[in-house]
Every structure is written in C-alpha cells, then in structure tokens.
Write a structure and sequence with these properties.
This protein is an alpha+beta fold. The protein is built from 7 helices and 8 strands; from the N terminus they run αααββββαβααβββα.
Length: 178
Amino acid sequence: MKKIAAFLLASLLAVTVCAGQRLADVHPGFPCDGVAQVEERLGSVEVAVPGSNGIRQYRGTEGGAEVTVVYHCEQGRLAEQEIIFKRPTRSEIYGIANEQSKELVKHLGEPLHDGLNLGAWSKLMFGFLGADLDYLTSVVVWGRAKEDVMLLIREIEGDRWEVVISQGSSKVEYILNS
C-alpha cells in the first residue's frame, strides 16, 4: 500500500515540473512528431490541431499553474516554443515570473540579463544610454542566440498580464535595448 501511495505521489509531482524541464525535454530542432508524446506525459491537452501553419497548442500545468504551450514547427522540426502564464493582476504575474526565473536559474545557470532584479545603478545607466527601461525591467535573458531561453512579462487585453517563457524566439528587441 505504501508503494502505491508513493507511486501516485510521484506521478502527481512529475506533472508539476517547472518550465526549465519542459525546455530541456523539447528544444529547437526537436522533431515535432514527438511533441504530442511529451505533452501527453506531462498531462497536457491539445487545444489547437496542427495545421499547415506549423503551430501546435496545448493547455497544461507548470509548477501547479495553468499554462498554454505553443510550438512553432518548420519542416517537421521545432523552431520556437512558448510557455504562457496568464493572470488578472500585475502582482500575481510578477510572483509567477520570479518563481519561474528562480527555477530556470537552477536548470540554466545565471542569466545574461535579469530585469526582474535590476539594480538602481543599472537602471540609471540603461536610462542614461536611452534604453527602454519598461522593457529591460520585464525581461530575463539567458543568452543572445535564438535558441537561448527568455522570460518576458507583458500586459495584454487591458488589465490582464502574462509571462512568456520562450526558446527559439528572436532576441533583437533585447539586443537593441541593452
């Protein structure tokens, strides 16, 4: 009986992984045919049937929070992955962003740029140089290459907020602002 209870508990915990684990399992270049098995294993449900545009969308959980996971495929291979958390308030979304950022640091190491923890002097310097401080204080970047991971907080639909953790997305906006 104890073994069964331990197995059930371990199964529940396996579903609530952080974004870092999903990003490690499915990364740019991964065969898009394998995405469905990974998402099924994580307990996600497909919400958008793959079409000619190469986009697959799933609803699942990350760290116990509901997320939408979007895969952009090109020529049968993953080009970009986005893990999206949506919340009605800014404070909730910053809580999720800080939690996910800490978990990503465990998997990826220290970020190249951590806008969530940007010091006063860094803000002053970036502002003096003409950078977009609203953008730079809402992004965490683990590298400048397209395959590197990026976390971005943004306001959507008026008073709603989202955190997007992406891999395979362009870092041009970050590069231009830093």
